[in-house]
Amino acid sequence: MPFHKSWLGYVFAAVYIAAAIPMIHHALTVTGGWISLRRLDIALVTIPSSFTFGLLFEALGWKPDYNPPGPLAYVDIVFHVLVTAVVIYAIGFAIEWVVRRLLA
After folding, report:
1. Which pTM was predicted?
2. Domains in the chain: how many in total?
């Protein structure tokens, strides 16, 4: 199956990654006061992946600790960001495909 390229998908994925990195860095470095919602912050930034693969990983017993984040937590975060970037790319690809079909 050939890989279909989409410039809009690339732009959407790049913008997502450019926005996700500082948001996750902020979630990991800011120390909270009364409560800490690090897992929730990261889950919101990576919604498609963390609520599918993340729940599957937790059911299988893999729940890395984000306070302080260790190597497994960073692997988990990178995985979720990449999967979410692929989903964002697919959305951009679908939008570009529809626009090309309508203009053709």
Report:
1. 0.83
2. 1
